[in-house]
Amino acid sequence: MPPRCINPPSAARLFVQLSAGARQSSSILEVFLPRQQQIRHLRTVTTVQHPRSSNPSVHHRAVRHHASLESASSRSFARRAFSSTSSRRRTQAIRNPQVDEEGKEMMLEITPRAAQRLTKIMEKDENPYLALRIQVESGGCHGFQYRMGLVTLPQSLAPSSEASIPDEPSPEAEAEMAPSTTTTTSTDSLQQELTEDDTIFAFAKDDAPVEEGSEEALATAPKIVLDVPSLDLLKGSKLDFTMELIGSQFKIVDNPAASSSCGCGTSFDIKM
Question: Helix H segments across 95-251?
Answer without folding.
Answer: 112-125, 171-177, 215-220, 228-234
